[in-house]
From TrEMBL:
Similarity field: Belongs to the nitroreductase family.
UniProt keywords, alphabetically: Oxidoreductase
Nitroreductase domain location: 9-175
Database matches in InterPro entries: Nitroreductase (IPR029479), Nitroreductase-like (IPR000415)
PANTHER family: NAD(P)H NITROREDUCTASE YDGI-RELATED (PTHR43673), NADH DEHYDROGENASE_NAD(P)H NITROREDUCTASE XCC3605-RELATED (PTHR43673:SF10)
Organism of origin: Nonomuraea purpurea
CDD domains: Nitro_FMN_reductase
Pfam family, one: Nitroreductase
Protein name: Nitroreductase family protein
């Protein structure tokens, strides 16, 4: 596929993750090697990658994620509650909410869970963008590389409600913070396409707001 096609059709895959097909670790490593080419502040490269494939550990991470997703949906602030005054966007939001709930119940069944982390003794005051900007672009590169190899992924952060518990479970040091949990599996079907987005001119500001 072309670069533009890759960038515009890499979607969050939740319901269409193949939970029964193993993902070779060699393929995950290829994607991570590409991720390591992303920029980082001061070229520190302080990222770390936890790849969880053990069924028991995946199930435990999935349990924490399930709890967080259920609380999120019960709060009434989830994706499904947004844009209720716009019938078209509201329908899209309901689908997003439904697929989010599905992944919440099945995160523990996903064959590979990738947690992108960054080494940080503490969260900086005033410029957290500098910290997270040194790992999140790499995580997106991983997702793009996965898509190019027939793997589906989704950007998820609700596990962070249990960050300390997951850190203890996986032996993550105290000075390493988790940024994103990326479920990774082969996907079913090949109908990915660009998603509806706000028109550029509604969000573009030239020189001044």
């Amino acid at each position: 596929m072309t670069i533009d096609e890759l960038l515009t059709t890499t979607r969050s895959v939740r319901k269409r993750l193949d939970l029964t097909r193993p993902v070779p670790m060699e393929l995950v490593r290829e994607c991570l090697e590409i991720a390591l080419q992303a920029p980082s502040g001061g070229n520190r490269q302080g990222w770390h990658w936890i790849v969880v494939t053990d069924p028991g550990l995946r199930a435990q991470v999935g349990d924490y994620y399930r709890r967080s997703v259920r609380a999120y949906h019960a709060s009434g602030t989830g994706a499904g509650s947004l844009f209720q005054d716009d019938p078209v966007r509201a329908a899209t939001q309901r689908r997003v909410s439904d697929s989010s709930a599905y992944l919440g119940e099945h995160m523990g069944d996903v064959p590979v869970q990738v947690i992108a982390c960054i080494q940080a003794s503490g969260l900086p005051e005033g410029n957290q963008a500098g910290l997270w900007g040194s790992v999140l672009p790499a995580a997106w590169s991983y997702m793009l590389a996965a898509r190019a190899r027939g793997l589906g992924t989704a950007w998820t952060t609700l596990h962070l409600a249990y960050e300390s518990e997951i850190a203890e479970l996986l032996g993550i040091p105290a000075d390493v913070r988790q940024g994103v949990l990326i479920p990774t599996a082969y996907y079913t079907g090949e109908t990915f396409k660009p998603a509806p987005r706000q028109p550029l001119d509604e969000v573009l500001h030239l020189d001044r707001w």
